[in-house]
Amino acid sequence: MDGGKSDTNEESAGYRSYVPSRRVIRIAFVLVLLVLSAPIASAYLQSGTEWSSARMENRTVPPANGVTVVTSDAYGGGRIGAYGPSGKTLYYNDSHDFYHDVDPSAKGKMTVLYVASDDVSKSECDSSVKCRRSVVERLNLTTGKITRIWSDVRPSRGSSAIHDVDYLGNGKLLVAEINPPDGVYIVDTNTDNIEWYWRAEQNFSHASGGNFPRDWTHINNVQQLHDGRIAVSVRNQDQVIFLNRSTGMKSNWTLGADDRHETLFEQHNPDYINESNGGPALLVADSENNRAVEYQRTNGSWNRTWAWSDSKMQWPRDADRLPNGHTLITDSNGDRVLEVNKQNEIVWSMSFPGPYEAERLGTGDESTNGTSAKALGLEPHATGSTTDGTSYVVASMAEQAVHTGISLLPPRILHALLFVFPVWITPVSAIAALALAGVVVLWLLFELHWASYTLSFSLPVRLSRESSDTDTSDGNAER
């Protein structure tokens, strides 16, 4: 009996000898933190040169078939840039906090109309919270002249900046209203009078749209169609709806449904393709599903006819069908704008921080002169590739492992992190930052344990250190 107990004690002592000391554990924590810091530091250093104003004002991007105008609303870096067919920068400005919608203007072939916004003082809207001013401005890309068409100042609640307007002519704007009361209205910029208003609460319950108490519907896009109807992107309700000014919402035309994420998941910038171009069809940036997708209306229902994504796609927010059958896509958290041909291959791309919307001048407003996927005979539900061997196709096992890890994180969480993090944060560095924070917390817990602290969760919360009659040496405690 005694011999057996002795053997057991010896085995226990032998086991304890393999327990790492505090010093070893601390060194391990330091090494892990260094490894996790590497992708964060790399992303920061790269962005410091790539996204600086000086670099953006003078950069050259790959040549394209026309002038490409891109906007960004990324936190820490709202900007607008225009790039000529040769790839040379024609115009760049980052004076507004956020840039959203951009459309070609009838005032000239090198003139655009854009929506931008800035955070301003509380006094400017007589509010107890900060305010946000949204503006609609006309920009001549050749001369750089900016003309303000309209502005609106509101208390800042959630994503309160106006994201989209549709110019109707004669100084009238069709506005997608994100602020309460959420809805769509027509304003005469000559008189500042509102001529027509549709409120979302006329057709939607305030219980819909998920947990967005300060940003209920997030109406982010509006488009007047050729027949006078109005198409509206009600993002948080996962729907594109159609309105008649006289009779209201045409429910039998709605695409999507609240929380039916297999159809749409918090989409942006849907473009209507009319019957003369092979429609009715809707080309949509299906943001949380990480794809561009198209639906064709047949026999009174919407049917998916095309979709495009690749391994790098993270939260696209604009997709335009060009007259040549190509699709121009902004990949917001992938920091790129890309053009996909009819064979679903990337034939052109450029880097841009957090792009929101892109326009190819000379091709019409958004998808106006584009043809539906069904009429073009595009292959449905395609996974994209490139024709030039660029890095958008995952090439190595290491890259595949990274992208597999990214895919395990719920898209809404990853996209939210990438949006609120600094503009230079990439998906990989965002995950590294989360892991780093977790390791720091774990190390802190170890240190509290070693220091013999106890945490009481009764009110008030107290943190106390256990007393000891003897001073246990670091070496003995670490055995």
Give a quick precis of the structure.
By secondary structure, the chain is α+β, with helices and mostly antiparallel strands. Helix content is 22%, strand content 35%.
Task: Map the helices and strands.
Elements: H1 2-16, H2 22-50, H3 53-58, E1 68-72, E2 79-83, E3 89-93, E4 98-104, E5 111-120, E6 131-140, E7 146-155, E8 165-169, E9 172-177, E10 183-188, E11 193-199, E12 219-224, E13 230-234, E14 239-244, E15 248-249, E16 255-256, E17 268-273, E18 281-286, E19 291-298, E20 301-309, E21 316-321, E22 327-331, E23 336-340, E24 345-351, E25 355-360, H4 373-376, E26 382-383, E27 385-386, H5 397-408, H6 411-420, H7 427-450, E28 453-456, E29 462-465, H8 474-477
Parallel strand pairs: 20-26, 24-27
Antiparallel strand pairs: 1-2, 1-25, 2-3, 4-5, 5-6, 6-7, 8-9, 9-10, 10-11, 12-13, 13-14, 14-15, 14-16, 17-18, 18-19, 19-20, 21-22, 22-23, 23-24, 28-29
The overall pLDDT average reads 85
Poorly predicted runs of 5 or more residues = 387-399, 469-479
Helix content: 10-25%
Overall geometric form: globular
Report the C-alpha radius of gyration, rounded. Answer: 27 Å
Q: What is the terminal separation in angstroms?
A: 27 Å
β-strand amount: 25-35%
Q: Report the strand count.
A: 29
Biggest beta sheet summary? 5 strands, antiparallel
Alpha plus pi helix count:
8
Helix-strand makeup class: alpha+beta
